[in-house]
Design brief:
Mean pLDDT: 92
Number of strands: 0
Distance between the termini: 34 Å
Number of helices: 4
Shape: globular
Pfam families: DUF4287
InterPro entries: DUF4287 (IPR025629)
Largest sheet: none
Order of helices and strands: HHHH
Strand content: under 5%
Protein name: DUF4287 domain-containing protein
Structural class: mainly alpha
Length: 71
């Protein structure tokens, strides 16, 4: 039986399928952005890369948590 994913990572399979990029690539884009605030990064992913709000939010949240930058 596979383990159920919770939190932001539960969105990752659908993000990769829908937008055609691996999660690591999205994280590289987020980390390379000059933007620092969570909502600024979410809005940037939505406007510049066409992501839906939930997907953008999950990517930013997970990346900032990994980097120790989440509040």
């Amino acid at each position: 039986m596979s383990q159920q994913q919770n939190g932001p990572t539960s969105y990752f399979p659908s993000i990769e399928k829908k937008y055609g990029r691996p999660i690591a690539e999205w994280q590289e884009l987020i980390r390379a952005s000059p933007l620092q605030k969570h909502l600024d990064l979410v809005n940037w992913l939505k406007t510049e890369h066409g992501l839906g709000h939930g997907h953008a939010n999950a990517l930013v949240r997970h990346t900032l948590l990994e980097d120790g930058r989440a509040h």
